[in-house]
Amino acid sequence: MTDCIFCKIINNEIPSRKIYEDDDVVAFLDITQATPGHTLVVPKKHVADIFEVDEVLAATVAGKIPKIAKAIKKSNPKIKGMNIINNNGKVAYQSVFHSHIHILPRFDEQDDFSIHFGDNSKNFTSEELDSIALTIKSKLEGY
Question: Which residue among the candidates 38, 46, 98, 100 is catalytic per the annotation?
């Protein structure tokens, strides 16, 4: 894709700070550096988001995450944890529409990154949860 910034990075058309590369995947520092070491893991094949990723590509990309995450953690003894995030769609804060996974080193509760999961458990009955689960299960291919 000619106007995709990640495709341009993959093709060495624009500079980046790559930390890993093989035939299928490239990992490079995110220019925003939400926290020091913030890295993006990107398939070389252009796919917009998880909805375009097949199981083989997903396994290939996900299979590189532990190796890269461990290297990032070893690179800085102050890293105490990590968030591994994949945003899909504008509403989910995806800003570059080439599938990618963020690896965000965490240093403490005051570093410049936050995430919040609301507790809506009181808003659903057992029957409503059963209905949601059954509806999703019915949409799984090959299940």
Answer: 100
CA distance linking residue 98 with residue 86, whole number of Å:
11
CA–CA distance, 32 with 67 (Å, rounded to integer): 22
State pLDDT tens for residues 83-97: 999 999 999 999 999
* Token couple for 94: 């995806």
The domains located in the chain, with CATH, are 5-115 (3.30.428.10)
98 is known as an active-site residue: no
Residue 16 has what pLDDT? 97
> β-pairing, 18-21 with 81-85?
unpaired
How far is Cα 69 from Cα 29, in angstroms, rounded to an integer? 12
Residue 2 contacts residue 37 (beta carbons within 8 Å): no
Beta bridge partners of residue 41, listed in sequence order: 27, 101
